[in-house]
Amino acid sequence: MKVKATNGLARILKAEGVPWVSTFPVSGMNNALGEEGVPIIMMRDERYAVAIADAFSRVTCGKKIGVCTVMGGVNPAGLQVAYGAIAQAFEDGSPLICITDGVPLGASGNSHYDMDLGLKSVTKWIGHIDMPHRVPEIMRRAFTYARSGRPGPVLVTIPGRGFGEYDEDEYPYTPVKGWKWAPDPEDVKAAVKTLLVAKKPLLFVGEGVFRADATDELLKFVEMAQVPVLTTLKGKSAFPENHSLSIGVRGELADSFLHSCDLLFAIGSSLSPGRFGQTIPDAGHKTIVQCTINELDVNKSYKVDHAVVGDAKFTLQALIDELSRQTGGGVKSNQTLINEIKAGKKQLSVKYGPLMESDDKPINPYRVYGDLMKTIDLNSSFVTHESGNTRDQSSTVYEAVIPRGYLGWGNVSTLGFSLAATIAAKLAYPERQCVALTGDAGVGYMLGNLEALVRYNIGITIIHINNGGFAGYGPGFWGEGHDPYTFVVSEHSVANYSEAVKNLGFYAEYISEPSEIIPALKRAFAENAQNRPAYLEFACSKYPVFGSWVTK
To answer: What is the CATH classification number for the domain harbouring 245?
Structure first.
């Protein structure tokens, strides 16, 4: 049967289980999506259209691939706006498929901007559908690349809305599953042997465990091996942080274990030093085992003594089997280690506990995080941060106990991503309470897109830590600040965000009393249960204090 090429592509998306496509609003694909009954989530700019698709892949651990459409072709303004979001997905290894208009035959060479050159550095693959019958071929490749190996964004171009038909019987489409590989058994054997002879091993867990859907295997391996677990920012919530072997993400406890370990055993981490992660101190005098999907990670930043290359789920299964074989079923409970971790956590509670109970006014931001943890169901929720202090503070104290109960992000990051992530989480897990933590800078990026939540009845809560400036940039009790000339923004009396957002259809409040934090959260969550988004603006102090990263 003959079908228009764009409609055939829309049917392929349905066959692949794509639940919706995000967009802004001009694309040669969008009419076909509507005609074929594919739901469309229309945001207010292309960056958010891409970011929601990216976040959907992240929060579902790649079980679902986010798909978006943006404007391209001879007027690729949409792609240019979307570039930052595509770059973020590429850097973080997040799979998504972005469909855009290609340059029609005979129209090339008339623009200085080249889409291929502009996007090649931030995509895993670019596929051009230049003939109608190639739709199944190119989409088969797109989903294969999105689901196989190191994830990343894939760009697909179509000539336009009316570029012909193809015969679905002659060119059928069968959904693809993606392909993964298991590690070399000899590498696994060497890694386990190294682990068992180490005196102070440390497990360093990255986002690759999420990508492989391997959180259950991670928990089993840790309990068999009796090793402490430190996660990366993007790996936060891969291992339950209320577990006796968890040392969190950052701060004094992480610092102590990173310095004292004689073996760093990495799983699902590139070990790439960055602004928002740990450096391995004295790496030349430690043994390093790296388990990764990407061979380009090995020996990149540090000399790796043993590499185990393969999918993290297959790797952990192999490690479990080998550890059982070499130990006769696992290592005995290490109560000395458990007591050491417990004592370290107690020291952290001495430092941050009073802040999380503070009655100071303006409100200490840690009081907001503390009351949030008292109010939200940690076993059925999703929380993410924004760039800046909400990232640094919440990743220090927020206790994530279920996979993707907290989404950490930030390498090549774009402000405002917390909104996209929380929307995607609510669409993926409608039964969860979903919360975005943002500061003043993040709100500025979000405002134009908030209307979409009202239009689609997406019941999430945005917590705005409003401290009347870019905290830490300017002078304060922490010192001079790193950007003392660019930290001042308008006070609440001038820029009343909660009132503005209320006029968009949100439930919104401004909270200045610490005693009102929990009641306000409960009111917001009750509105969310009725599919109404909520916005809580808290009058907070500038308090850029948080757990540090090890940087040398």
So the answer is: 3.40.50.1220
Report CA-CA distances (Å) from 437 to 55, 442, 493: 16, 9, 22
**Amino acid residing at 90:** F
Question: Based on the domain organization, do 489 and 381 belong to the same domain?
Answer: yes
| Domain identity same for 113 and 161 | yes
Tokens matching residue 441 = 């800078």
| pLDDT in the model for residue 413 | 77
Examine the domain organization and report whether 202 and 311 are in the same domain.
yes
How many domains does one find in the chain? Answer: 3
Q: Which residues pair with 158 in a beta bridge?
A: 101
Residue 268's pLDDT is 97
Indicate the burial class of 396 (C-beta count within 10 angstroms; 0-12, 13-18, 19 or more).
buried
Torsion of CA 234, 238, 240, 243, to 10 degrees: -100
The answer to whether 460 touches 453, Cβ cutoff 8 Å, is: yes
Confirm whether 490 is domain-assigned.
yes
| Contact by Cβ (8 Å): 507, 428 | no
CA atoms in the 13 A half-sphere facing the CB of 431: 3
Longest dimension (CA), the chain: 72
Same domain for 243 and 387, yes or no, is no
Element (H, E) at 421: helix 417-428
0.85 exceeded by pTM: yes
Calpha distance 472→105 (Å, rounded): 52
* Order of strands, sheet of 21-23, starting from the edge strand that comes earlier in the sequence: 40-42, 21-23, 66-70, 96-101, 153-158, 125-128
Contacts with 503 (C-beta within 8 Å, 6 or more apart), sequence order: none
CB 371 within 8 A of CB 518: yes
How does the average pLDDT of the chain come out, rounded?
A: 94
The residue ranking higher by pLDDT, 76 or 196, is: 196
Q: Note whether 293 and 208 are within 8 A (CB).
A: yes
| 308 located within any domain | yes
- Could you read off the pLDDT of 485-497 as tens digits, one per residue? 888 888 888 889 9
Strand boundaries in 270-312, DSSP class E: 287-292, 306-309
| Predicted pLDDT at 493 | 83
- Tell me, yes or no, whether 234 and 332 share the same domain: yes
